[in-house]
Amino acid sequence: MNFFSQQLSKKKTDLLLKRIGRVVAAEQFINGPEVGDLERKLSDFFGVEAVTCNSGTDALMIGLKALGIGPGDEVITTAFTYFATIEAIAAVGAKPVLVDIDPQTFNIDASQIEKKITKKTRAVLVVHLYGLACDVAEVARICKKHHLKLVEDCAQSYGAKSGGKLTGTFGDVGCFSFFPTKNLGAFGDGGAVTIRSKAVLARFKLLKNHGQPRKYVHQIIGGNSRLDTIQAAVLLEKIAWLEEDLAVRRARAQSWFKKYRNHPNVMALPEQEGHTYNVFTLLVHDRKAFVKELEREGIPSAIYYDVPVYKQPAYVGLFGKHAPLPHSEFAAKHVISLPIH
Ligand SMILES: Cc1ncc(COP(=O)(O)O)c(C=O)c1O
Questions:
Q1: How far does the centroid of ligand 1 lie from the alpha carbon of residue 56, in Å?
Q2: H-helix or E-strand containing 319?
Q3: What is the per-residue pLDDT across 108-164, written as a single tens digit (0 to 9) for each?
Q4: Which of 7, 165, 206, 291 counts the most CB atoms within 10 A of its CB?
């Protein structure tokens, strides 16, 4: 068993190859009709206008830029996330201000946000880690009260809901990744944003395509973050399977619960309602012993993440010697993830 293997059926593989074949035949590899079709599908799904780009990292970075966030601004976010969340904040020249996590959900502890707000705070960037929504309604309330932008990192939470509402529809910008292992995964890199404001949306579209409102007219300096037509075609096919795919993840989660509910080394299982299990992560007392046991059974595992972001070598300059955030430190030492496909 491979940790990431999705074991697509022959029928699904054939459907995907047919879609790709159509793009190859049409030779419209950039901005082909599939890209627009996918954006319409995403917009319908979320009920908010959606635009594609070429990764979740770009979705975050260009999303922040489109909101006008940059040097001198502070963005409050979680200390326990993938490197890219912080990277996007740093890339636009803003300062990430870290908040510890709620130990039950691994997501930002909303009750700790207000004390981190300063005159420079412009936004809160939440992450719906592992496919479980954070307390995003509460964060939205705080943002409204303090006139802050809310950005959602939904890289791991496509299809996840909080109080019946999809993640990515609470904030000013919702950022998605279509990295192959995500809930909706392409056959390469891909990303998208959901954006409420027409002005921010227009700016995002310019920034992701060399600042061009039309061909060879460049209004602002942007870059190239277009989603390839082939990836759009793959996603258009796979989007129809989302509910089925999420059900597979939930069924697999149930089998892990059954196996590990009474295991002496297991501290907590991810049994929260609404979890989409992009990553199935549990807490164990002794991680080394647990990995050894898994290896004996031929079960691969992974660790997301073994250090809080402020301990990443690349961020030494950014955070200096950051005071330890206890729940993030604890999670980094005790989390372990099992295959979920
Ligand atoms: C929480 C989180 N944010 C951002 C990203 C970046 O997405 P991408 O790999 O598509 O750039 C990832 C990808 O793993 C992620 O897990």
A1: 5
A2: helix 316-319
A3: 999 999 999 999 999 999 999 999 999 999 999 999 999 999 999 999 999 999 999
A4: 206
**202-248: per-residue pLDDT in tens?**
999 999 999 999 999 999 999 999 999 999 999 999 999 999 999 99
Q: Does the Cβ of 153 fall within 6 Å of ligand 1? A: yes
Residue 74 CA from chain centroid, whole number? 21
179 lines ligand 1 (CB under 6 A): yes
Average pLDDT over residues 310-332: 96
Assess whether the C-beta atom of 177 lies below 6 angstroms from ligand 1: yes
**CA-based radius of gyration for the chain:** 20
10-100+107-240 to CATH, choices 1.20.120.910, 3.20.20.70, 3.40.640.10, 3.30.1490.20: 3.40.640.10
Q: Which residue bears the tokens 């027409």?
A: 198
**Cβ of residue 166 lying under 6 Å from some atom of ligand 1:** no
Q: Which residue's entry shows tokens 């300062």? A: 95
81 Cα nearest atom in ligand 1: 1
What angle (nearest 5°) sits at the alpha carbon of residue 47, between those of residues 45 and 50? 75
Contact (CB, 8 A) for 64 and 123: yes
C-beta of 337 in contact with ligand 1 (< 6 A): no
Whole-prediction pTM:
0.98
Q: How far is the CA of 145 from the centre of ligand 1 (A)?
A: 29
